[in-house]
């Protein structure tokens, strides 16, 4: 990154984010994402994920600021005030990086289509109707669970483990541990199965056992594919993204703090 970084500000459509966009571009100028040194999305976690999916292939570091309802992946938004140390350029220069590697999902549908998508938080398979999903789970080509009867199942990264995964009673994972969480959603059979923690490079394959009577959809972050018959997921071997966080509240600290909330 250059001494004075070229910044691409990207804002959600929320009024607060649009007002911040006007203020920040007035102070620091605006650069297109392809030419920028750093991307600064303004919004919530959902908008951060949209930004990563849209621009992640550029390989630019991302310093998000919270101007939305949820901001686990974002830094606090503060008006620039160099006297108090909240100048944006100072904050970016001092920020700590967190390198994330997303999951890569390959979904096969009843119609024969193949859809590939990335997930920085999680991939979730969900029943489409009132009837529970029946799923077979293979790890690296070996069947580990012949039949899971449940509302669905989640495969989560460490960065996403405090989100949907945690709401489904899955474990919170340390950043950089090289593991992912496999968590059932409302399991009926096996009733006592609570999921597993897997090495991040494990290839996980879900087979839908009765796709016509019990249809299943899959969602990679916010990208949904319906009527799937097989879903294969593994950690991306090519794509990484670097998120920047204020040192006093970095992503590793946030994940740790989530485990001591009472």
Strand order, main sheet: write it out: 7-6-17-14-9-10
Q: Outline, from the CA principal axes?
A: elongated
User: Which stretches are poorly predicted, pLDDT < 50 over at least 5 residues?
Assistant: none
- Cα(first) to Cα(last) distance is 40 Å
CATH class of the largest domain: Mainly Beta
Mean pLDDT, all residues: 93
Which class best fits the helix and strand makeup? alpha+beta
What fraction, in percent, of the residue positions are helical? 10-25%
Count of the domains: 2
CATH topology of the largest domain: Tumour Suppressor Smad4
- Number of DSSP E strands: 18
- Give the CATH architecture of the largest domain: Sandwich
Topology as a string of helices (H) and strands (E): EHEHEEHEEEEEEEHEEEEEEEH
**Count, helices:** 5
- The biggest beta sheet, please? 6 strands, antiparallel
CATH superfamily of the largest domain: Probable inorganic polyphosphate/atp-NAD kinase, domain 2
Rg of Cα set: 20 Å
